[in-house]
Amino acid sequence: MPASAPPPAEPPSPPPPAPTEDAAVEMEAAGSRSRASSVGTVNWGTATLVGVFAGLLYGGSREASANVSKDAEVMLKMGSTTDKREQYRLMRDAMEKRFIRVAKGSLIGGVRLGMFTATFFGIQNLLIENRGVHDVFNIAGAGSATAAAFGLILPGSMMWRARNVLVGSVLGAGVCFPLGWIQLKLAEKAQLEIANSKSPSDLTEEKGNQSRVGAAIERLGSSLKK
């Protein structure tokens, strides 16, 4: 019985086309645009952590300042009795209650401000990814959406919550627009000062890297034209 012939070998797949000079230039321009659009952005985790610590300090200091009148009442009670044990008990109870109030205020302040900061910068980063650019409209939109969200979760009737959403969205955009413009201007100024403060050796190295990249693109283009 004759042996069956082996199946014909499949032709090798053609190699992928090499990137042209225009594609390389477009990739370099896209990289420069992404670097330019990242000016003024803030890391979400760092901003949230800073917001939590700021809320802890604000809530604790607020509760501590609010307990001044209560401390005065305790001092009056201590002055009206001559029993040392009673005075010690009043002082101990006052210190325990004050510690609990300050700790509770710190935790509530940290959670509230941390949630606000996380929501604001999360929405801002989402807008940056979707729009592909970081400008003042991202900051204003994030502020409006965050204020509207927190106005919606406030206690009250539906009409009251709708009013809070409307007022919060308008106030959030109105407050964040000028603040965002100032932030971006300061970030651009800082980037310009950093670029101007570079030493001649750094500039020479950057120019050498750019020249090497340009030479590689030219060689690639000439090899494709042959």
TrEMBL record:
State where the protein is found.
Answer: Membrane
Major subcellular location class: membrane
Q: Which GO terms describe its cellular component?
A: membrane; mitochondrion
Q: Where is this region: Disordered?
A: 1-37
Give the record's keywords alphabetically. Answer: Membrane, Transmembrane, Transmembrane helix
How does this chain sit within the bilayer? Answer: Multi-pass membrane protein
Give me the stretches of Pro residues compositional bias: 1-19
Q: Which domain of life is it from?
A: Eukaryota
Where are the membrane-spanning stretches? 42-60, 99-124, 136-154, 166-184
InterPro entries associated with the record:
TIMMDC1
> Quick one: a GO biological-process term for this protein?
mitochondrial respiratory chain complex I assembly
Instruction: Please report which protein family the annotation says this sequence is part of.
Output: Belongs to the Tim17/Tim22/Tim23 family.
This protein's name? Complex I assembly factor TIMMDC1, mitochondrial
